[in-house]
Amino acid sequence: MSKGKFSSNVIILFVLIFISFISCKKEVAEPVPPADLVLLDGDIYTVDEDNPRARDMVITGNTITAVFNVDGEADKYIGENTRVIDLGGKFVTPGIIDGHVHFNRAGALINDANLMMVSDEEGLKTEIDRVVELLD
Asked: Can you tell me the distance from the alpha carbon of 7 to that of 12, in angstroms, rounded to the nearest whole number?
């Protein structure tokens, strides 16, 4: 083998090795700001046709930041003050909030039993007592 051919083969070999090292470079995940709430191991309905179900959900403020189907992907959002809830496979669905009032009916809540803010037995008794006093 001639000296010129040998050095060409060495250069080609070096380039191939260099390219293989570059292609094996590990991707470094970009740091993300910590979330306020991370829900893990759930059956989460996303209302997204392309991705209707997820296992983990990340929430920052009042915004769903991310949903994941692979365990561990939500971990990068967990910070010192992040609340983490293991759902244990429980179902999660988006809430529906009705934000309008019919004024002709809203006034009746003042005079009738308003159970919209009642969350326990004691609150129910207090509200019923209030209405009874109005009727006396």
From this structure: 9
Within a 10 A sphere around the Cβ of 24, how many other Cβ atoms?
A: 7
pLDDT in tens, 61-112: 989 999 999 989 999 999 999 999 999 999 998 776 666 767 666 666 666 7
Beta strands in the chain (DSSP E): 37-40, 43-45, 53-54, 56-60, 63-68, 83-86, 91-92
Say if residues 67 and 56 touch (Cβ distance below 8 Å): yes
| Count of positions (residues) in the chain | 136
DSSP one-letter code for 51? S
B/e letters for 59-86, b = 16+ CB within 10 Å, e = fewer, are: bbeeebbbbbeeeeebebbeeeebeeee
Query: Residue 31 corresponds to which tokens in the numbers above?
Result: 């740091």
Residue given tokens 């709430």 in the structure block: 37
Return the amino acid letter for 134.
L
User: Looking up tokens 């991707």, which residue turns up?
Assistant: 27
Give the span between the Cα atoms of 82 and 103, in whole angstroms: 40
